[in-house]
Amino acid sequence: MGKGAVVRRFVGVSAAILVFLVALPSAALAHSGEESYVYLDIYDDTVEGRVEYPIGDLNEVLSLDLPLEEEAAIAYAEANRQLLHGYAAEHLGLEDASGEWPLVFDGFSVLEIGAAGSYLIIDFTVDRVFDSVPREFTASYDGIFHAKSERSGLLIIGTDWGSGTFNNEASELLRFAPGSTTASVDLGDTSFWKGVGGVVDLGVEHIRIGTDHILFILALVLPSVLVFSRPEGWQAAPSFGSSLWRVLKIVTMFTIAHTITLTLGGLGIINLPGALVETVIAVSIALAALHNMRPVFVNREWLIAFGFGLFHGLGFAGLLSDLGLTQTRRLISLLGFNIGIELGQAVVILLVFPSLFLLRRTRFYLSTMYIASGVLAVVAMGWALDRALGINLNVDGLVDRVILWPRSLVFVAILAALAVGALYVERDRGRLLPVAGDSGTD
Could you tell me how many helices (H) and strands (E) the chain has, helices first? Predict the structure, then answer.
């Protein structure tokens, strides 16, 4: 098969992938505006949760005037705390064979979901410490639909280590409606392997949605297919093996660093303010990107990966600290979570590294790396200002439009098609750049 045919076939396949990905339906919103929600987080010896009411329905049922905007709604809710807490307590009940569980309602927050409106969220805790949280109990709920029969309510288990459930936002367990306001909750048997599998998935998910960690990895991988020397500057790496070795060193040192602090943070030995950690993570992306333009640790990006990886590990640890785990489960969860992070990192690198390697000898790569590094630095400094000073620059919203899965696969497919096409065109025209230590022969 000729080179032209190879290029056409590759571009055709990439285009097919692109069309498929663009045609994928968007994930359905967990909140439709037609239901209210009860979320339960099942920990080893405690239960926490929240109730989420559509603000429009809550205003109608309680004759309130809750605004839809977050700050105004929270201020209004605080001014009517007793009424709202009393309503939530009256329309939600949990109990087991030993009796009713006392519920203590606390703070307010708001979830804005666009066309479907906004939800007022009321947090609560079960004011009881269990030897072990029962796996079977009874839930009663008739919030909103006691007055609006066309509405319904859902009970969702957000967190449950025993079933391997974490950060569940949409998979319902029970549905309540008029005439069906009480139901038995069966969490099923606990399983060690379900718990481990759940935290592995949680680690993968954290990389998938952790755009700052993804961008840090990309900033470090961009120069991995090049070699820097003082007289010549950046040149194409001589072989796939040498480039892969550099990537492995970067990933290994990043892994060692974040494993250290993930473990120390997850066990509560180190506890730094979250805003500080998140700000340093943002700064780490900017410095890694700027290093691509003006190298200081020449061909030793693994030093940057290790140094800032320590802070990324503390960022990872923050997620586990909210899972309410005993010391025994915490240790195995740290291991499983770390495995998930490594798997997520490996996927990111596998998706982009081959295309970068193919492009490295074309005249486009260096300028592309500089542009990409500049964009990464600007985005990262926007994050840093946002996190350090509380300035809302909407960086997350802008980045998520590009990076969020599966949308990011579109750009991976485009990058792969461009890499193969550019390589063949430049080779056919005899314009491939020499590799480091070579005179320019192919």
Answer: 13, 12
Q: Tokens at residue 227, please?
A: 């070699």
Alpha-carbon distance of 218 to 211, in angstroms, equals: 10
Domain of 301 in residue numbering reads as 194-428
Neighbours of 429 (CB within 10 A): 8
Among the candidates 163, 189, 215, a domain finishes at 189
Q: Are residues 423 and 225 in contact, defined by beta-carbon separation less than 8 angstroms?
A: no
* pLDDT tens digits along 351-405: 999 999 999 999 999 999 999 999 999 999 999 999 888 877 788 878 877 777 7
| 183 & 255 share domain | no
Instruction: Round the CA-based radius of gyration of the chain to a whole number and report it.
Output: 26
Measured distance CA(62)–CA(58) in Å, rounded: 6
Query: What is the total count of domains within the chain?
Result: 2
Q: Are residues 255 and 178 part of one domain?
A: no
pLDDT tens figures, 178-208: 999 999 999 998 888 898 899 899 888 888 8
Q: Which residue has the higher pLDDT, 313 or 117?
A: 313
Q: Six-digit token pair at 326?
A: 């005993």
141 and 214 part of one domain: no
Among 168, 189, 210, identify where a domain stops: 189
